[in-house]
Amino acid sequence: MGTNVYQQKIAAPEFKVRRGTVKCESGLTLTKMATAIFDTATNDSSAVSNKTVAAHGLGVFLPIGAIVIRSFYQVKTTFTSATSAATIALKVTGTGDLVAAIAINDGSNPWNSGLHGALAGNYAEATVAGDTAILAAARAAGSYIGPLSAEKELTATVAVEALTAGKLALFVEYVQGL
User: Fold this and answer.
1) Which of 2, 56, 68, 90 could bond 98 through an S-S bridge, CB–CB 3.0 to 4.6 Å?
2) What is the pLDDT of residues 103-123, one digit of tens each?
3) Rounded to the nearest 5 degrees, what angle is found at the Cα of 28, between the Cα atoms of 22 and 33?
């Protein structure tokens, strides 16, 4: 008997979106997922150590017109600093628009190993009698970021004190707007 077609492994080339001009067109489209790694063992896009107190470009850019509809991050290695007072913020366009600056020793454990939600696409929905689908859609759209007027680099900002360890993957889902 032959190998089941569903059991065959298929080799595929690595897929990355190139930077440059992107436009919105009529027809069917897919959402895109930007993935950026922030690792204290490496340097940022400007060749500065990711451990330092600074804004660290992650080398992943969203195009002009992008509309961020959802975001989250996975901490692989828990973040640490000398006194655990370091803060980290994640952004697309403005300070903390994905994750506001919060200390690594915060009781909500945002920088501990595991999956964590970010602001874009994660809105607090009140369940009030009489709420409508339109109201729910308005709440969701209010959490979106964009459309971007210029290309933007995903950024992690470290403040208060230098980091000693930590690694995360940031996932930013977007559609290409006008």
Assistant:
1) 90
2) 999 999 999 999 999 987 665
3) 55
